[in-house]
Amino acid sequence: MKPFLPLLTTLLPVLYALATAAYARAYMREGSAGDRIGPLALRAAVLIHVLYLTARGVLEGHLPLASVYDFLSATGLSMAIVYLYVESREGIRTTGVFVIPIVFLIQIVSSAYGQSAPREIPLRPIWFEMHTLSAVLGYSAFAVSSIYGVLFLILYRDIKANRFSLFFRRMPPLEVLGQMNIRAVGSGVVLLALAIVLGMGWLESTGQGSLSDPKIWLTIFVWCIFAFAVLAYHRFGWRGPRAIYMSLVAFSTLLLTRVIVDLFLHSFHTFR
Description:
mainly alpha, Four Helix Bundle (Hemerythrin (Met), subunit A), 9 helices, flat
């Protein structure tokens, strides 16, 4: 199994590049082969990616999330999975050209430098490993939601300005983009809630760290903002730019809190 890892490491960026090219073709020309090849190539990339990380986990005895480059690889995979989920629910493929290239860039950095990166202490406790995996999936879902949010605002302003460009013709209606945004946000809320619960359970069972850690409370604060965005959409009838701005404010707050924790506050599990 180990001899195949370098091959899989090289193959992943190639498959994501193929998916990127296919989605770009689907965006540029309606009804082109890209509409069929894009999802197939992306699913193949995700399958190989899962196989690669599984093989790494079996050989190393822990989830491969112990270095920055492992984290990047898991983030790229998570974004691809979230995108495929939203695409399958909405049946819209023309937004892939704005998501999959990011996945490709993330993976090419991970593949290029990850093998030579020094291995850090493995995250052996299963609760903490599942906590980390859930957090990566949740943050990736929020990142995908922010992309949909930006696409919504660009399309909204183009419509108000009577600019009917290729972007206008290839994007789904505003209502659908809003649904895609909130689906991704909702997925992130569930996954991050799971990460918080698992993390606190791990703290209680091991006694390592402290519930007073600022990263925990800032994460809960960010989760509350995202959860309110979902609640406002479904219960209060928030639609259009107001709902999108809410989700983008939440994502901006998420990024800001990460910067604050890493640069100014002490956290027992700051990822480096």
